[in-house]
Design brief:
single chain, 100 residues, alpha/beta, Rossmann fold, three-stranded parallel sheet, two-stranded antiparallel ribbon, 5 strands, HAD-like_sf, Integron gene cassette protein
Length: 100
């Protein structure tokens, strides 16, 4: 059995694109969120816009129930791993979400 993973999902230009005042959903990213949630992974939604903004966007997309938390992106990480903090982390671009 695959191990369950902790996955952070960005909002802007990942879950949605914004053109003027219009938010355009990115379906492949929302589908990825649904698939990872269904597989039992732990998902967090985060954004530079903050936790409330993240929750509002996820709610508008109908995927808020897939997340255990809504967070602002950090400005500083205090961690013993230093600049190697994300060495073990897989980064998936929104356009490739359907392949993962």
């Amino acid at each position: 059995m695959d191990r369950k993973r902790v996955i952070y999902i960005d909002v802007d230009d990942t879950l949605i694109r914004t053109v003027g005042t219009t938010q355009i959903p990115m379906p492949a990213s929302s589908d990825y969120v649904r698939r990872m949630h269904a597989a039992g992974h732990t998902l967090y939604c985060w954004s530079r816009g903050g936790g409330d903004y993240s929750r509002d966007v996820a709610t508008s997309l109908g995927i808020a129930d897939c997340f255990v938390g809504f967070l602002p992106k950090p400005d500083i990480c205090l961690d013993d791993r230093g600049d190697r903090l994300l060495d073990y982390c897989d980064v998936i671009l929104p356009g490739n979400a359907s392949n993962h």
